[in-house]
Amino acid sequence: MLANKGVQLESWIKRRGAWGRIFSYLLLLAITLAPIVLPIYWLGAVTDQSNIAEIVALALIYIGFLIGLPFWGKRIHGWPHPFSRYGLSLRLQTARDLLLAMLIGMLGVFALFGLQTLLGWAEPAVPSHRFSRFVVEGLIMALAVGFAEEMLFRGWLLGELEADYGSKPALWMCALFFAAMHFIKPWAEIVRTFPQFLGLVVLGLALVWARRSPTGRPVAKVTHSAKLSNRARPRLGYPIGLHAGLIYGYYLVNVGGLSKYTGEAPEWITGIDNNPLAGLLGLVLLGAIAYAFSKTANPKAN
């Protein structure tokens, strides 16, 4: 009986469109993990350790998400190697792509604050006495966030969208969904920090184009007519590295105390609440990175 119900559910999901499949997977994930995650949240509340409980719960949810992907890709789409389809490949070239894109992201952030320093809008500061700790801590955090978000948004989500939609619709839907998921806050805050949403959209576009760029060939002309070899297929190395590089660069400058704003420029230029994504200069930086990767990107990741 249960096996028959499972076959019926699988058949029903296969007939759904991209968004139907996306929310079906998320719903199944929530139902499966609720008996494990909810007690963890409850335990954190009663022991006054809610922050630790939230970290543990989110880690378990993400592990469950990763475990489910191979079954989903094989049963729903018939893909023999789902992780490869989503762009995850344990190759040396992927590591090179990641490091190169991470360098691009970090240098972009440093250039942004360097320009602000030259214009008198920021000034160098004495680094925190814990700076060496922040170097290691920030690197681990940036790579973890970069991998987690890129596997979710530019791996699985983009793969589902590209299975049903053309290049541009999938691009914009992925970027807008990414921005919306990072912009869940009270309405008053949404209005006050709206420029940040624009920055998140541009970042989402840049990361999709990075995902679609063939491995080993960043910021260079790529022909789309010939079928890419397996070695040159777009993978997650570029988006993970770019995402991690932007986070790491800002973490070192902000948390590490390498620079501070002088208050000489309005927030709409430098960024609301000192967030570069919510300012004109940050938008220009992200726009330049997005444009560069758009020149190398294939129409789709697969």
Sum this structure up briefly.
70% of the residues lie in helices and 2% in strands. The protein is mainly α.
Written overview of the protein:
InterPro entries: Rce1/LyrA-like_dom. One of its GO terms (biological process) is CAAX-box protein maturation. This is CPBP family intramembrane metalloprotease. GO terms for molecular function: endopeptidase activity; metallopeptidase activity. A two-stranded antiparallel sheet has the order 1-2. It is globular, with a radius of gyration of 21 Å. The protein is mainly alpha-helical and 302 residues long. It has 2 domains: 80 residues, no CATH class; 210 residues, no CATH class. It is built from 12 helices and 2 strands. The longest helix has 34 residues. Helix 2 runs antiparallel to helix 6 and helix 5 packs antiparallel against helix 12.
What are the defining features of this structure?
two-stranded antiparallel ribbon; 302 residues; 2 domains
**How many domains comprise the coordinates?**
2
Number of E strands:
2
Largest sheet: 2 strands, antiparallel
What pattern of helices and strands is seen along the backbone? HHHHHEHHHHHEHH
Q: Strand percentage, roughly?
A: under 5%
Poorly predicted ranges = 220-226
- Gyration radius, to the nearest Å? 21 Å
Strand and helix map with partners:
Blueprint: H1 2-14, H2 18-46, H3 50-77, H4 82-85, H5 92-118, E1 122-124, H6 131-164, H7 167-181, H8 187-192, H9 194-212, H10 237-254, E2 259-261, H11 267-270, H12 280-294
Antiparallel strand pairs: 1-2
Helix pairs in contact: 2-3, 2-6, 5-10, 5-12, 6-7, 6-10, 7-9, 9-10, 9-12
